[in-house]
Amino acid sequence: MTYTHITMDELVFIEAYFQHGTTVAQIAKRLGRARQTIHNVITHFKAGHTAIDY
Q: InterPro entries in the record, alphabetically (predicted)?
């Protein structure tokens, strides 16, 4: 299994989807990422950070 870092584009998409109320599962499916990965990023956003801070 190969692992890839989340790209800046993906972070921006996740942030936009999150702000529009899209669920973690829907975001994960759209981006082809694990739900846990999306959840971790959203937790970062909820702490007051942005995609640029990640």
A: IS30-like_HTH (IPR025246)
Where exactly are the structural domains of the chain?
8-46
Query: Tens digits of per-residue pLDDT, 25-37?
Result: 999 999 999 999 9
* Residues written for the chain: 54
In the 3-class helix/strand/coil scheme, how is the chain assigned residue by residue?
Answer: CCCCCCCHHHHHHHHHHHHCCCCHHHHHHHHCCCHHHHHHHHHHHHCCCCCCCC
Q: Which two tokens stand for residue 47?
A: 């702490």
The DSSP code for 7 is P
